[in-house]
Amino acid sequence: LFLLLRWLALLCNLLAFPRLRPRPTPPKPTASLLVPARNEAENLKRTLPALLRQGASPEGVLEAFRRTDPGLEKRQFGLVAATGESLTFTGAECHPWAGGVAGKGFAAQGNLLSGSEVVEAMVETFLTAQAPFPERLLLALKAGEEAGGDRRGKQSAALLVVGEGKGYGGLWDRYVDLRVDDHPEPIDELFRLLSLHRLLFER
Q1: In 13-37, which positions are buried (b, 16+ CB within 10 angstroms) versus exposed (e)?
Q2: Contact predicate 165/189, CB 8 Å
Q3: Residue 97: is the preceding peptide bond cis (ω within 30°)?
Q4: pLDDT at 15 over 70
Q5: Given 7, 67, 144, 174, which is the most exposed site by the fewest CB atoms within 10 A?
Q6: What CA–CA distances, in Å, run from 200 to 24, 35, 40, 191, 195?
């Protein structure tokens, strides 16, 4: 379930990217846009924002990765552009159950889940819950957990929401950045921490 939350957090991060002024000829994603890095995680960190900022669609990003990442079939990720265009990708070598659902403005995915009903419950709750965005993410995670969640059990969770100038006093972009490393009910604990965050930082 921690993996689910990490990718939903990535979704928030991508949604927060500002729209750029339209360019006469948006560049197509090519392998040349990928910057060599010491390891794959660093490569993703550097190139994914660059590709999106330069006008690549989520599908274009995936195609760039197909050409350059020999370990792609071991990976799982979701991408959401500022336009709302999205995709979810699950490599053939991910541990079952593994899969995802993507739609306008969202992408939800996970692996080592009890079944597809986990992701389906997350998506339904995310799209229908009447709550602020951070709470909607947690409600979606809770729904996924109640639908079966991670087949290994539960231990940790995290929530990251960013937006331009959304941090305390408008000084930075991290609006919510919370994590629970070891707890019998990590999502419930995140709800508690989020309520404290609002109490302390939204006055």
Answers
A1: bbbbbeeeeeeeeeeebeeebbeee
A2: no
A3: yes
A4: no
A5: 67
A6: 45, 40, 37, 14, 9
Burial group, residue 55, by CB count within 10 angstroms (0-12, 13-18, 19+): middle
Q: Give the count of alpha carbons within 13 A of 176, CB side only.
A: 25
CB-CB neighbours of 3 under 10 Å: 16
User: pLDDT tens across 132-154, in order?
Assistant: 999 999 999 999 999 999 999 99
Question: Does pTM top 0.85 for this prediction?
Answer: no
Other C-beta atoms closer than 10 Å to the C-beta of 163 total: 17
* Closest residue by Cα to residue 187 from 161, 163, 153, 162: 153
The amino acid occupying position 56 is A
- Using an 8 Å Cβ cutoff, are 183 and 155 in contact? yes
Rounded to 10°, the helix 2-15/133-146 angle is: 150
pLDDT of residue 26: 40
SS3 (DSSP) at 160? strand
Q: Whole-angstrom Cα distance, residue 183 to residue 72? A: 32
Residue 64 or 138, more confident = 138
Helices (H), 87-132: 116-128
113: which 2 tokens? Answer: 């889940």
Per-residue pLDDT band for 17 (boundaries 50, 70, 90) equals very low
pLDDT tens for each residue of 86-96: 999 999 999 99
* 76 close to 99: Cβ distance less than 8 angstroms: no
